[in-house]
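Input/output pair, single chain:
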Amino acid sequence: MSEKLKDKAAVVTGAGRGIGRAVAETLAEEGVSVVVNDPGVERTGVGGSTSIADEVVAEIRKKGHKAIASYDSVADFNASKNIIDSCVKEFGKIDILVTPAGVLRDRMLHNMSEEEWDVVVDVHLKGTFNCMRHASSYMREQRWGRIITFASQGWLGNVGQANYSAAKGGIVSLTRTAALELGKRGITVNAILPGARTRMTMDPTVVAGIKQKFEAGLMPKEHYEAFMGMPGPEYVAPVVLYLCTDVAANVNGKVISAHGGSISLFSEPQEIKSIDKEGIWTLDELIEIMPREVTKGLVNPSPPQEG
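Output:
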């Protein structure tokens, strides 16, 4: 134990399995008291079991560290408050919030139901907001805090995941805004873009879908091979720990990829081409100038196909 985070208190959502569990256990090993939040639902968001969180808590305590379980859903605003409050009640404060909780309901956009949209957006995007909202109130008062949200390659767009991609894109924007609002109070907010072998990514249905996309030419070979060779969630946890330290106080509002031993920083969005005119452009003018000055060289990522 390095003791750089000793005596801190944290909430980790979705901590019963996968990345959340790896983060919770690694934080505990660094001397952090942890609220292990997980309602124990299936990857689609149905069902529930207290044993999932209880098992992680038991494992942490067996090693002599501090942890309590929480079974509330992050998708509920008031239940999320209970999650955060339980940390303050048990450990006296909340210093760290990590939000990898998530569910999947993959479907092509033209077939997606309202429920399939709502369930995924509620857990990922609203759930992240809910926990951040309640945790930030405490963190502002103590003038210190670390919030680590979770984005995904889906943020860049992924066939069959309109709900998931929209939620992850929203989390990136939420992270950037929260960083601007909270930074003056000593709170940093960053997003992790993980690549890890978990039940979310390696479910047989997901693997079959990925293979189908690759074979249909909808996924580049390098992306398919990277997916199939995905490393374990234990590779992601140390990056989360680093962002929680004082050494990373200058890192705020960023998206950082953690995939195995590879760690990368995403660039900031910026304009790359522009045209200007005094007054309103006409359609004929745009048809003339746009292909020459702005949209030249662009390729349709999903061109029309015969049949």
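The chain has a mean pLDDT of 92. The chain has one domain: 9-196+231-265.
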